[in-house]
């Protein structure tokens, strides 16, 4: 008798279990009971940040989570993204995710997606379109705020060290020209130059890559012998710039008064924060790549027929080599002024981070 009861209980548990799995799967199944098909047009694989962003999207939109992900790496070329989106439309995907390499040039293809009734979610950088109904929602980070945070940190740091603003001789290794990250971070620096009277020697794109960052730094070092601040618009450019500076027999660090070159960067990747810990990068402003779960939450809300916010900003921190500067005040893209803590980096913090 006992065995029979146990067998019945087990059968019921199994059935319930199956139902719960089915239920969770059906949460992400389209109306026709099939897994949701997601077409993701990714910028490329240009940086550690991008790799972490891709990993976040792939691990979220996995088969076991009930999705079919069609992934395309555009190698930082917009024409490849346009082709990928048109393929997604042909394949009648349920959602298109787009991480746009630059802000302009998307109106036509997004109109085609709209005409096909496929919702588009913009991830990371922003699109500059004539009609913002061409995309359903956007998740990303406030690049202008990131640039302003870095500029305020530099002003506070130089002031604390008694360095006159006109004695800061800055080069800006920019990101991919026309991308939201480059536009915002460059603007943040240029506002600082305007506001504080820094000497901005040169600006040139490092394409967010280590190789190009090194090449640009090498040429700037040949042109200028008084560079003492290098503003890198992402960590991979900073890695390249540091190699070039050290190959030229100079030293990166925080002691400008004694001839060290101060490097500022963005992304706070694991390797970037390790360079902060060892004093090679003085300040690294966070840009969070882990958009997978956020994109999924928006898709689930849309599947449930809920309204979603048009713009979904992600909060980000600031890390520095030391505690010379403890907070900065900066205004974000929504014109809201905020005070942001600056965290001296430790190995524990690095070990505890998700990317
Ligand atoms: C930032 C993102 C940038 C990163 C770079 O939002 O678009 O692109 O800062 C990446 O590392 O290449
Ligand atoms: Zn960012």
From TrEMBL:
It comes from the Bacteria. One of its GO terms (molecular function) is carbohydrate binding. The keyword Ubl conjugation does not apply. Keywords: Signal. Its main location: other. It is found in: Cell envelope. GO terms for cellular component: cell envelope. Residues 38-282 form the Periplasmic binding protein domain. InterPro entries: Peripla_BP_I (IPR028082), SBP_2_dom (IPR025997). Residues 1-25 form the signal peptide. Belongs to the bacterial solute-binding protein 2 family. This is ABC transporter substrate-binding protein.
């Amino acid at each position: 008798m006992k065995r029979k009861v146990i067998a019945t209980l087990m059968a019921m548990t199994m059935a319930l279990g199956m139902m719960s799995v089915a239920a969770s799967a059906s949460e992400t199944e389209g109306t026709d009971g099939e897994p949701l098909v997601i077409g993701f047009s990714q910028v490329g694989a240009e940086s550690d940040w991008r790799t972490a962003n891709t990993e976040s999207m792939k691990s979220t939109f996995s088969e076991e989570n009930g999705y079919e992900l069609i992934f395309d790496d555009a190698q930082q070329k917009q024409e490849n993204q346009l082709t990928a989106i048109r393929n997604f439309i042909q394949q009648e995907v349920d959602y298109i995710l787009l991480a746009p390499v630059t802000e302009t040039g998307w109106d036509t293809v997004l109109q085609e997606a709209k005409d096909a009734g496929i919702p588009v979610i913009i991830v990371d950088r922003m699109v500059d379109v004539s009609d913002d109904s061409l995309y359903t929602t956007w998740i990303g980070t406030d690049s202008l705020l990131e640039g302003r945070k870095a500029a305020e940190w530099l002003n506070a740091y130089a002031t604390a060290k008694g360095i006159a603003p006109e004695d800061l001789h800055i080069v800006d290794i920019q990101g991919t020209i026309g991308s939201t990250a480059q536009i915002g971070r460059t603007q943040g620096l240029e506002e600082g130059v305007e506001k504080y009277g820094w000497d901005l020697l040169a600006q040139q794109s490092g394409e967010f890559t280590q190789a190009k960052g090194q090449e640009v730094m090498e040429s700037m070092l040949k042109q200028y012998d008084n560079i003492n601040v290098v503003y890198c618009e992402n960590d991979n450019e900073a890695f390249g710039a540091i190699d070039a500076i050290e190959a030229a027999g100079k030293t990166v660090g925080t002691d400008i008064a004694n001839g060290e070159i101060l490097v500022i960067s963005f992304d706070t990747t694991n390797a970037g924060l390790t360079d902060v810990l060892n004093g090679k990068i003085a300040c690294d402003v966070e840009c969070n790549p882990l958009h997978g779960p956020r994109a999924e939450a928006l898709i689930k809300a849309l599947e449930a027929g809920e309204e979603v916010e048009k713009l979904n900003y992600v909060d980000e921190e600031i890390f520095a080599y030391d505690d010379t500067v403890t907070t900065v005040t900066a205004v974000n893209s929504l014109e809201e002024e905020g005070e942001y803590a600056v965290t001296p980096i430790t190995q524990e913090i690095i070990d505890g981070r998700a990317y």
